[in-house]
């Protein structure tokens, strides 16, 4: 059986500016006020006490690189993400769009994988070099993530989105990505009425 090609995905930012997705620190240092505005928005997700240091974490498999210097991509197909969210009990979530990125277009020297064995840290055992064989195993939706979604649902209810990529390996790219010619996949959730 021929295995279908696996891709990487990045959520389309709410306010996409131009044709490039940039790492956090590139947005921060940009001369473009619109990009700095996007930075101010994105950095909000790291304002919680347990997440504030994440952009500063060093990535041992990429020289002189912090989490804030990379773009994070997911190996999970958006439809699988949707199925997992619905399986966990989420509904009425807003439409999501993802860029589909061909892993063969990424520079292996600027790409690494964060395995999510544990919480974000600098431990070398948590990271591995990039190769496309690993993509097949990483594109399978982890059972633990569905469990996390269910816990989140119990605590916060259906209308708030959980951290989508908890326990899922992250592919890190130390580069901006040109999205002008990338396919965009759209995921819609069924609207359920009543409670």
Helix content class:
10-25%
- SSE pattern, N- to C-terminal: EEHHEHEEEHHEEE
Biggest β-sheet: strands ordered side by side in the sheet:
3-7-5-6
Task: Give the DSSP E fraction (strand runs of 2 or more residues).
Answer: 15-25%
- How many DSSP helices? 5
Rounded to the nearest angstrom, the distance between the terminal CA atoms is 44 Å
Report the count of strand segments. 9
Structural class comes to alpha+beta
What is the gyration radius calculated from CA atoms? 17 Å
In round numbers, the mean pLDDT is: 90
Overall spatial form: globular
Task: Return residue spans where pLDDT drops below 50 for at least 5 consecutive residues.
Answer: none
Characterize the largest beta sheet: strand count, sense, and whether it forms a barrel.
Answer: 4 strands, antiparallel
Blueprint of the fold:
Elements: E1 8-11, E2 20-21, H1 24-29, H2 33-42, E3 71-73, H3 78-88, E4 96-101, E5 111-114, E6 127-129, H4 132-138, H5 143-156, E7 170-173, E8 177-178, E9 184-187
Structural notes for this entry:
The protein is of the alpha+beta class and 195 residues long. Helices cover 25% and strands 16% of the residues. It contains five helices and nine strands, in the order E-E-H-H-E-H-E-E-E-H-H-E-E-E. The chain has a four-stranded antiparallel β-sheet, with no helix packed on it. A three-stranded antiparallel β-sheet has the order 1-4-9. The longest helix has 14 residues, at 143-156.
């Amino acid at each position: 059986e021929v295995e279908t090609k696996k891709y990487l995905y990045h959520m389309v930012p709410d306010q996409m500016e131009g044709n490039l997705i940039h790492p956090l620190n590139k947005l921060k240092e940009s001369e473009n006020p619109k990009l700095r505005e996007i930075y101010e928005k994105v950095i909000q997700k790291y304002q919680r006490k347990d997440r504030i240091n994440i952009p500063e974490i060093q990535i041992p498999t990429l020289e002189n690189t912090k989490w804030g210097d990379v773009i994070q991509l997911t190996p999970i197909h958006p439809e699988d993400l949707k199925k997992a969210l619905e399986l966990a009990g989420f509904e009425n979530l807003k439409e999501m769009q993802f860029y589909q990125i061909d892993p063969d277009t990424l520079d292996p020297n600027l790409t690494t994988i964060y395995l999510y064995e544990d919480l974000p840290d600098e431990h070398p055992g948590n990271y591995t070099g990039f190769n496309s064989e690993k993509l097949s195993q990483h594109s399978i939706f982890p059972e633990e993530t569905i469990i996390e979604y269910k816990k989140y649902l119990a605590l916060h209810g259906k209308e708030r989105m959980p951290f989508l990529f908890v326990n899922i390996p992250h592919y890190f790219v130390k580069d901006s990505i040109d999205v002008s010619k990338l396919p965009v996949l759209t995921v819609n959730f069924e609207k359920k009425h009543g409670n």
